[in-house]
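Morning. Coffee machine broken again, so started the prediction first thing and wrote up yesterday's gels while waiting. Chain of 773 residues, entered below exactly as on the submission form.
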Amino acid sequence: MFKIAAKLGKNRGFQKIPLRFVLTIPFVVQLFSIVGLVGYLSFRNGQQAIDDLAGQLTHEVSDRIEQNLRNYLKIPYQINSQNRNALQLKHLNLQNLDAWEGYLVRQAEIYHPDIVYIGVGNDRGEYRSGEKLNTGELRVNVASDRVGFQSYTATPAGDRLALQSTVSSFRLRQRREYQSIVQARKPIWTPVFTSMLEPTLIIGGGEAVQDQTQAGILIVGLRLERIGRFLHDLRIGKTGQAFIMERNGMLLATSTAELPFREQRGIRRSFPASASSNSLTQATATYLRQSPQMLSQLNTSRQLKLTLQDEPYYLEIKPLQDGPGLDWLIITIIPEADFTEQIYHNTYNTIGLCSAAILIFVSMGIIMARRITRPILGLNAAARDLAQGNFDRQVPACRIAEVGELGQSFNQMIQQLQQLFAEQTALNQALATSEYQLSQILEALPLGVLVVDAAGKCTYLNQTAQTFFGGGIDPNIDFDTVAAVYHIYQAGTDHLYPRDELPLLLALQHKSIQVDDLELRRGDETLYLEVRSTPVLTEQGEILYAVSTFQDISQRKQAERFLADYNATLEQQVQERTLALQQEIAEREKAEVALKVANMELEQLARVDGLTRLANRRHFDEYLQLEWQRSLRLQTPLSLILCDADYFKLYNDEYGHQAGDKCLQEIGRAMLQSVQRSTDLVARYGGEEFAVILPNTDSSGLLKVAQTIQAKVRELQIPHQKSMVSEFVTLSLGLVHTTPNSGHSPKTLVATADVALYRAKNLGRDRYWLQEL
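Came back before lunch.
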């Protein structure tokens, strides 16, 4: 700051700046900076508080909507569970749907108005459902392929009264709700559709069921208008909104008064949220539609701040998934204007208070600067006299404590300077004495000592070092020629010591080093030296000196050579003995390898079927036990196939047992070709039965392998005139799929697969049957 002021003064033609300006200007600049920073931070913190509050509010609203939806979506699961229990307990069945009508109507009345209808259908296309309209009217809905869909008013006991509506084109098995439930084979949600009887959107929760002889579905329809009423009653800030849509953008429910469907020519149709009549809903959905990747890959809640209709909004998108078929997005949007009114009021108050503080503090600064500069000018005059060598001038006392203390310190400094001059003379004499004593100590050492400065100039060489180097050394050492001049070699060689490896030069490069391979030759005499070099540094880490010490180690080197010769002789003897032992070990290892190979061949023979060369029953049992334990530990799926050649006894009777053996071999090869992974095991289970173990395989992979096996066997086209299902040899397959748990065992898995095989045979053979465990 002072430098800037000085530059400004020079640019305007002034040589000096008055002290009162130097004290006042930085104070004023700092005051303006602090006040501006306080105002900015006040506004910024307020904005941050708004962002935090808006984020918490949108998150709380989204969580509340999600909690309500999940509670609401549990209802179909509960109802279907009750109806499934009624089937399992044989209170009701899928052959006589008339018996369901009273039961379904009573359920519809109990769960009204959460649900639209509760229904049941079978694979013959027959359908019954109970329904209670928003008017309170009870309905029994009946459908079949013969009469289509008919809706009757009903009594609370479920008795039909008057026919109210008919849809002759209705075919249960052709509707996508029925097909999606049957194909899934587990509880799912149907696509959203409009009600035929009431103005509401419906989503159905259904699952496939099976009784003793009949297959069918259970389905419960939820009213999405209940979700809209919940959103409408929910308080979302002052003017915030919330709506729910599918991933594809179709509107399901909204907190506004808008209905999520439109009626044209008597037909109700849902529409995308981007086509909403509410401008905010439409703008938000249009923005999201422009980011299709975000919509398709969004798996967790995401908060955004965006500008819609030239106004800032806080947006939270929360995905809601509940099994197959239900993948919704909860959208909560609140305008920033709901929060900013109070923060702007606080900001204006802060600016006013800061402006008043600036005026007060600037006035006080100018007054204080004038009072401070007067005594400092007197202190400045005394300092000029001191610079000229006048130690007699004293600084007068001042009423300002700090300036007065500075004057006293100035007077004390003059007295201390006089004392320092006297002490400096005494220190110089003591230093000269210390240097003499140090020189005497270094001369008495049995080691050679060499000291050079940072430029490489020799500054000290003791008497022992002079003896090593033949009386002395050139003060201006040339590291390029020093090895040649003083006959310095690498020990044991005729090579001069490399310049870049000289210890003294390395010390000048900030390295401490110790070597014992330096050889000094003086005529017929050779000395082996151990050298230690280290740098002497300043406090800033710069080289001040480099010190090297030299020690004669000729006797130690002679002893090392004798020891090396002895070790070489001993090492040769050890190598000869080791070679003999290695040959003996190699012969033993060769015998052990041969024994292992023989054992492996015996083990292989014990695990392979002699006819088909597939795994035998023993290998099958061991491998199944192993994979069962692995899947139990990792909780991965495990699948098993048991298959049997159809009417194989008749085949043997017709073509003979040799042809039967060849047929089994070809079937085994076809099954091996049907599996792709090294972990899959094909085994001969016994007689004409085969088995396939499929680790880490789900139901879809299991069906694919079974279909491949059937296709491969049919491609063989092995004639079978006595077969009652085909002119060629065919297979019946029993399939089972499970994720192992402690309540079952591998035997349970095999028994279930055997039941499935029995079912496939009873259904006509040349097919497969999947049985869940």
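The radius of gyration is 50 Å. Going to sketch it on the whiteboard this afternoon.
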